[in-house]
UniProtKB/TrEMBL annotation:
It comes from Umboniibacter marinipuniceus. It comes from the Bacteria. Residues 140-265 form the Thioredoxin-like fold domain. One of its GO terms (cellular component) is periplasmic space. Belongs to the thioredoxin family. DsbC subfamily. This is Thiol:disulfide interchange protein. The keyword Signal applies. The keyword Signal applies. It is found in: Periplasm.
Length: 267
């Protein structure tokens, strides 16, 4: 399965660059030739960073490539995309590009090596993010863990997850809500306006309950909190809601039953 990742620049630039990247990959696929059965495989060469970088910049000049570096996959270089938490892989000879997921299978279960690479980076970003304008639902008793949840009032699964907050809090989980209205960049950002109204109200938590129940709110200009949180989520690779992160940087896309989350948290 081909896996194209979001590029986290300013949201409009990110979407534009990803469209270019998808088109470029599609066009390249059309021009690929199938090797004959008897064609010999090229022996693995030592890493040729200059060639890899030159080839990427020639074929995809619109993409802000970083410097290729050794990866945990033997024979492949990791190439970061500037402004994005993700990376792609290029063969050491600089001749082949890989855009799919790679798993290490030497242990008891497969490990996504890209996720493994990004976890500490995400954990640091989450730990250092200013939560003064986040909606925090504290644990009812002793705090055993914290999760960060990017939510959207127009999302049915977010509404369902919202109903699990009491269970999570009672189990010792602190829940940090961050706004991620998916229509932020659209021409009619209904959810963005609603969430801005919620975050700017005198009682954001009560207003959020009402918003999930279908009530609308007028946008206010109290701060840029909602847009800032949306951009922060994009920098972490959020592209759907609810999107959950654990303190160690583990990413969990989609709503999860309380018992599943508690198991992942070791509670």
């Amino acid at each position: 399965m081909t896996y194209i990742v979001p590029i986290t620049l300013e949201a409009k630039e990110r979407i534009y660059i990803m469209k270019l990247f998808k088109i470029a990959v599609a066009l390249m696929a059309l021009s690929l030739s199938v090797p004959s059965i008897g064609q010999a495989l090229v022996p693995q060469a030592e890493a040729n960073v200059d060639r890899a970088q030159a080839n990427l910049q020639r074929i995809y000049p619109q993409i802000p490539w970083g410097t290729p570096a050794p990866s945990s996959v033997e024979g492949w270089l990791m190439v970061p995309i500037i402004g994005s938490p993700e990376a792609i892989y290029v063969s050491n000879d600089g001749e082949h590009l890989f855009t799919g997921k790679v798993f290490r299978i030497s242990g008891n279960s497969p490990v996504d090596i890209e996720e493994e690479r990004m976890m500490p980076e995400r954990a640091e970003k989450l730990a250092n993010y200013d939560l003064s304008e986040a909606l925090i639902y504290p644990a009812s008793s002793e705090k055993k863990a914290r999760i960060y949840v990017f939510t959207d009032v127009s999302c049915g699964y977010c509404r369902r997850f919202h109903g699990q907050l009491d269970e999570l809090n009672d189990a010792g989980v602190e829940v940090v809500y961050l706004a991620y209205p998916r229509d932020t960049q659209s021409r009619q950002p209904t959810a963005y306006r609603t969430m801005t109204g919620v975050w700017c109200s005198r009682d954001p938590k009560g207003s959020l309950n009402e918003a999930f129940a279908g009530e609308s709110f007028q946008a206010a200009n109290c701060s840029d909190a909602v847009r800032d949180q949306y951009n922060f989520g994009s920098s972490l690779g959020v592209n759907s809601t609810p999107h959950i992160f654990l303190e160690d940087g583990t990413k969990i896309p989609g709503a999860q039953p309380t018992e599943v989350l508690l198991q992942q948290l070791g509670i």
